[in-house]
UniProtKB/TrEMBL annotation:
Gene3D superfamilies: MFS general substrate transporter like domains
Entry superkingdom: Bacteria
Designated name of the protein: MFS family permease
Annotated Gene Ontology cellular component terms: plasma membrane
Listed transmembrane segments: 66-86, 98-122, 193-213, 251-271, 283-301, 313-331, 337-359, 371-393, 399-417
Compartments it resides in: Cell membrane
Domain Major facilitator superfamily (MFS) profile residues, every copy: 24-421
Its membrane topology: Multi-pass membrane protein
Species in which this protein is naturally found: Granulicella aggregans
Keywords tagged on the record: Cell membrane, Membrane, Transmembrane, Transmembrane helix, Transport
GO MF entries: transmembrane transporter activity
Length: 553
C-alpha cells in the first residue's frame, strides 16, 4: 500500500462543531430536508394512530396479555430478521428507488388490512401477520431512510438533524395515539374505527413517496468498482462491526436499554385496560404522554448533551425509566402516571437520539446503511425480545411483577454497560482519503475476482522503536480488518529482530481495490504513524500475491 506523507495528520474535528445556529432547528432551513421532515412527520402520525388502533383492536379480539404484547414483537421482529439485509441493500442499490419501493409496500399492506378490518374478516393472528408485514417494509426502509441524512445536511448538523428526526417521530407519538384512540372511540364498533385509521395511514405514505419521486439525489459515496453482492455486503458489514469498538459500545447500550424498557410499551395497553380501567381514548392519552415528553426532549436535547455529556445523560435516563416501570406497577392514578410518562418520553428520546447519533458519526459513508441496519436490528431486537419476555412473565404471573422485574434488571445492568462509552473524545475524520498513487496493476492475464490475495508489507524498525511500533501496528490491524481484510498478522524475523512483516489477506483482488476506496483520512493517519517508524522514514516495501491454484495439464 502506498506511503503518503507520514508527517501530515488530518485535522480531527471535535464532536460538537460550532454552527451558525445553536437552536437545533438549523437543518429545517434546508428545503430538501424540510420537505422530507414534513412528509415523514405526517406519515409517522398515521403510523402511531395505527399502532394505537391495532393494539386496542387486539384487546377486543383476545384477553391474552401475551398476544397483546406480541403486537410490539410483531413491530420489532422484522428489524431483527432483516436489519442486516436492509443495510446491505441500502449500501448497494440506489437508495431513492429502494425507499420508493418499500414505502409503496407499506401503503399496499396497510390498505389490505383496512379492507379486511372493514369487512370483519380479522382475527388476532391475521392482525399480527399484517402488522408484521407492514413492519417488514419499515425494517427494509429504515436503514436507507436514516443513511440519506448526510446527503441532505452538512455533517456538523447531523446531531441536530437526528434530534429533529426524533422530534418528528415523537411529535407523531404525542399526537398520533390520541388521534387514533379518538377515531376508534368515534365509531360504534372498534373494527370500523380501526379500519378507518388503517385507511388513513395507508394514504399518509403517499406524501413520502411524492417527496422521494421529486428528489434529485447526488450520492456522497459512489464506487467506480462493480457493486458487491448482497452476501458479500453483509459479510463486510459484520466485519466492520466486529472490529469497530465504538460502534459495538453503541449496540450494547441500545440492546440493554431497549430490552428492559420495552415493558413500558408492551404492557401499557394492559395497564390502561385492567389496572386503570381506561378505554381506547384513555390508552391513546397515556401513549401520547410519552410522545409529548419526547417532543420536549428533542427541542432541548442539543443543549442538554453539550452540558452533561452522553454517558451521564444516558445513565440518568436509565434510572428514571426504572422509576417509571415501578410507578406503572404500583400506582393506580391516571394523572400521576401521565405526568411520569411525559418525563419518561423525555428520557427515552434523549437516550435513543444520542445512541443513533453515535452510530451516524462512528462510521464512514461506504458502510453507513449497514451500520444503521445493525443498530436498528439491535434496537428492535431488544424491543421484540423484551416484549415477549415481559408479556410471558405477565401472562404467567402478573403485570406488576413483570414491570418490577424489568425495573430491577435495568438498574442491575446499568453499572455493567456504563463502561461502554459513547461520543467521548475526538471524532474520527471519515472523509474519504485522496490517494496520490495509483493502485497496483494486475498482470494482463489475471482475473480481478481471483483470490485470495496476500498483501505483504516489509518493515525495518529499530530496537528502541519496537514497543511503539507494535502498539501502532495493532491499531492498524483494526483498520485493515474493518476495510476488508479477512486475516491479518505481524511477524518478527527470527534471525534479524529489526525486520518485521505485516501480512493480511483479501478474498479477491477486487476486494483489495474496494479496501483502498474505503480508506478514510483517519485510517490514513493511523497507517502513516506506522509507516513513519520504518527505518529512514522510507516507504515500506509492499508486495502482492494471488493464490496459485493448480491448473490441469
Amino acid at each position: 500500500m502506498p506511503f503518503e506523507n507520514p508527517d501530515s495528520t488530518p485535522e480531527i474535528k471535535p464532536l460538537l462543531q460550532p454552527v451558525t445556529s445553536t437552536s437545533g432547528f438549523a437543518p429545517l432551513k434546508i428545503a430538501l430536508f424540510r420537505d422530507r421532515w414534513i412528509a415523514s412527520t405526517v406519515s409517522s402520525v398515521g403510523t402511531w394512530m395505527q399502532d394505537t388502533a391495532a393494539t386496542w383492536l387486539m384487546t377486543t379480539l383476545t384477553a391474552s396479555p401475551l398476544l397483546i404484547a406480541l403486537m410490539q414483537a410483531a413491530a420489532s421482529l422484522p428489524v431483527l430478521f432483516f436489519g442486516l439485509l436492509a443495510g446491505a441493500t441500502a449500501d448497494i442499490f440506489d437508495r431513492r428507488r429502494l425507499l420508493i419501493f418499500w414505502q409503496a409496500w407499506m401503503l399496499a399492506t396497510v390498505a389490505v388490512l383496512a379492507v379486511l378490518t372493514f369487512l370483519g374478516h380479522i382475527s388476532p393472528w391475521a392482525l399480527l401477520s399484517f402488522t408484521f408485514l407492514m413492519n417488514v417494509g419499515s425494517a427494509m426502509n429504515n436503514p436507507a431512510w436514516q443513511a440519506i441524512v448526510p446527503e441532505l445536511v452538512p455533517r456538523e448538523l447531523i446531531p441536530d438533524t437526528v434530534s429533529l428526526n426524533s422530534a418528528s417521530n415523537n411529535l407523531a407519538r404525542a399526537v398520533g395515539p390520541a388521534l387514533g384512540g379518538l377515531m376508534v372511540a368515534a365509531f360504534k364498533g372498534v373494527d370500523k374505527g380501526a379500519g378507518s385509521v388503517f385507511l388513513l395511514n395507508a394514504l399518509s405514505f403517499a406524501g413520502v413517496i411524492w417527496v422521494l419521486v421529486n428528489w434529485k439525489r447526488i450520492p456522497l459515496f459512489k464506487s467506480v468498482l462493480p457493486s458487491e453482492r448482497i452476501a458479500g455486503s453483509i459479510r463486510s458489514g459484520l466485519r466492520y462491526v466486529r472490529y469497530s469498538p465504538s460502534l459495538q459500545s453503541s449496540l450494547i447500550r441500545a440492546f440493554t436499554f431497549t430490552f428492559f424498557v420495552s415493558a413500558v410499551w408492551s404492557l401499557l395497553a394492559v395497564v390502561a385496560n385492567r389496572d386503570l380501567h381506561q378505554g381506547a381514548m384513555g390508552y391513546g392519552i397515556l401513549n401520547g404522554s410519552l410522545g409529548l415528553g419526547a417532543v420536549i426532549a428533542a427541542t432541548v436535547l442539543g443543549k442538554v448533551r453539550r452540558r452533561f455529556g452522553a454517558s451521564r445523560m444516558i445513565a440518568v435516563a436509565t434510572a428514571y425509566m426504572a422509576l417509571t416501570l415501578l410507578v406503572m406497577a404500583r400506582v393506580r392514578s391516571p394523572g400521576v402516571i401521565i405526568a411520569v410518562l411525559m418525563a419518561a418520553g423525555f428520557a427515552w428520546t434523549s437516550t435513543m437520539a444520542t445512541l443513533n447519533t453515535s452510530v451516524q458519526l462512528a462510521v464512514p459513508a461506504w458502510v453507513q446503511a449497514r451500520a444503521l441496519g445493525t443498530y436498528l436490528m439491535t434496537f428492535q431486537g431488544g424491543l421484540a425480545l423484551g416484549s415477549i419476555t415481559w408479556g410471558f412473565v405477565a401472562e404467567h404471573s402478573s403485570t406488576p411483577v413483570a414491570l418490577v422485574a424489568a425495573a430491577v434488571g435495568l438498574m442491575v445492568t446499568l453499572p455493567v454497560v456504563h463502561r461502554f462509552k459513547i461520543l467521548e473524545g475526538p471524532l474520527p475524520d471519515h472523509t474519504p482519503y485522496q490517494w496520490t498513487r495509483p493502485a497496483p496493476q494486475l498482470a494482463g492475464d489475471s482475473d480481478v475476482t481471483a483470490g485470495p490475495v496476500r498483501v505483504s508489507v516489509e518493515y525495518v524498525v529499530k530496537a528502541e522503536n519496537y514497543v511503539s511500533f507494535t502498539k501502532a501496528i495493532h491499531e492498524l490491524r483494526g483498520v485493515r480488518l474493518r476495510d476488508g481484510a479477512i486475516r491479518w498478522g505481524i511477524y518478527r524475523d527470527a534471525v534479524d529482530p529489526e525486520r518485521l512483516n505485516e501480512t493480511f489477506l483479501m478474498e479477491s483482488w477486487l476486494d483489495y481495490l474496494r479496501s483502498r476506496e474505503r480508506v478514510t483520512a483517519e485510517d490514513a493517519a493511523i497507517r502513516d504513524r506506522v509507516y513513519a517508524m520504518n527505518e529512514g522514514n522510507e516507504r515500506p516495501k509492499v508486495s502482492y500475491q494471488i493464490y496459485a491454484r493448480e491448473v490441469a495439464g
